[in-house]
Design brief:
There is one protein chain. This protein is of the alpha+beta class. The chain is built from five helices and eight strands. Strands 1, 2, 3, 4, 5, 6, 7 and 8 form an eight-stranded mixed beta sheet that branches. A hairpin with a 5-residue loop joins strand 6 and strand 7.
Length: about 190
């Protein structure tokens, strides 16, 4: 049997480390480091982190944020917001037997023309009548459409992630039925 005359080339030596930073809406904090042999290969890569890592708030461990690398300058890579999700285990822990869970998936266009898909969940401690379910769902849809038409993408995403909009919906929905919790399950940037 013939021996191979050429040796394998070590491609790891050609690679370089790049620092990845969050967008302006999260204070351009460091998300970590990524290795690549070519900076063009970084464009389009997705980085995931928890809101706890960005804010230091341990009660936000269940909130996952996804960022897409869109620009590389020198040894630094900069990102844009891609999507936000809550852990499924957290959502399951909030619902109990005989609870009512109302899911709303809304495609919204913000004031600056960006399109996002928002999934909201409202949880009630007991069974709701169908008229109450319709009233709460209408309230959620109308409030979200109104907020999106008056707000740009960056403040809208910040208010959704930090819970300002959900607390407003919670206060309004409590007048219809004693809702226990309103959560933003997902936010996805479509355009």
């Amino acid at each position: 049997m013939a021996r191979r005359s050429s040796q394998m080339k070590d491609t790891w030596k050609d690679k370089k480390w790049y620092n990845v930073y969050a967008p302006d809406m999260f204070g351009k904090q460091s998300l970590g480091e990524v290795v690549s042999s070519d900076p063009d290969n970084l464009i389009g890569r997705t980085m995931m982190t928890s809101l706890r890592d960005l804010t230091g708030d341990f009660s936000k461990t269940h909130v996952k944020l996804f960022f897409r690398i869109n620009e590389v300058q020198g040894d630094n890579a900069y990102t844009e917001f891609k999507k936000h999700e809550l852990l499924r285990s957290y959502i399951r822990s909030q619902t109990r037997r005989n609870n009512t869970k109302l899911d709303n998936i809304l495609d919204l266009r913000t004031k600056d023309g960006m399109k996002i898909r928002v999934t909201l969940t409202a949880i009630a401690p007991r069974r709701m009548q169908s008229s109450q379910v319709l009233a709460v769902n209408d309230l959620i849809r109308n409030h979200m459409k109104e907020m999106a038409s008056q707000t740009d993408l960056v403040p809208m995403v910040q208010e959704l992630i930090l819970g300002k909009i959900t607390s407003e919906i919670y206060k309004s929905a409590k007048k219809i039925y004693p809702i226990r919790r309103v959560e933003v399950v997902k936010i996805k940037k479509l355009s």
